[in-house]
Predict the 3D structure of the following.
Amino acid sequence: MSRWAAIVYGRTYEVDFRLLALPHDFNRTETDWLMSHIQTMTRLPEELPSKPRWAVFTNDRLCVVGVACMARDLGEPVNNNAQDITRDQRGRPLYTFVGYATRVTDQDIVKIPDYLPENFSLFNPPYYQYVTANWLLKSYDDRSNVPISTNYQDSLPTVEIPTELDTREFNLNLVENNKVYLWPDRDPERYYLWATAAKQIRAGNNVSLCMGLASGSNAINGAFLNVTATDVTAPQKIIRMQERTPVSSPELASEPSEPRPNCQTFSNKKDKIIFVSLQVIAAFIGAISGFLVARIWGVVNDKVAIYTLIGGVIAWILMLFALTVNLLIKNNSSVKPRSHKHERDSNVSSFNQDSVLGFRDKTEQDRTEEDDMGWR
């Protein structure tokens, strides 16, 4: 018989969203795995009113079931004298994720709770118990950063598998991590997909189902392999977008650096020939100029050669200086556009990834919606 421990993620009166309750034996890896699914479920929170999202997801050790919804959808607290913990200090309605986790073993058969779209009574007690305990904590209080540890309790009411399920074509994606199966977000599909997932939960199966996402595009880089979305009209399979692997600092250090511009840097053999030819021509013109100056000044014959040599050397030095400056300017101008291109490519990559992940620059409309949905 499975034993379940409560999970609560949400915001309190003053402190932003975080895990408020977590099974006592979750390690860092398991917590990160859990949070990746919760973050997928809570994207576009403005779509949550009247459209709660249900999910069941497993790995080799854990099975989690839960719902992301508005706090007010969970119903009234058992204690009628309790304070209102569905709005924050600015009066904004809050949303939350409430769920349960159980350990999966080879011996146990995990039976998950039934899917009851209009009944959140199973998730009401944990929310009011653990949010109330955290409600008035301040952001500077160390306790606000530490979730309350929860223990595994007796089994929950379990789902009943419909007898006609085998005649339906609801094959979940259990192994293709590079694909996401999309389904229409309708009650019949939700009902049968939940039952199908319940049949598949056992050690070794990667059951991953989220029902009720606002858009199929939100599933592309989400944590789930099977998703129902409001904009999907027929079952379909999509390729999951691969995230670009970031390059670590050591690898960056090992990459060849941009060539430093100097007089020995040429783009091709033709440039070298032109460079040398211009120096020879400059020396020749300088020598002729020195010879003419010597004749005009009436220099004696034995000193004409000296004037000719000095003129050639001066002209060669001036030409070499001019060519070097020109080459430096040319190389600098070729390096800068490349740097801009890298920056532009990086920005485009970052924008694409942020768009896929559901993050974007906040507009005034976004801020207004976040104010209404408990964001700050």
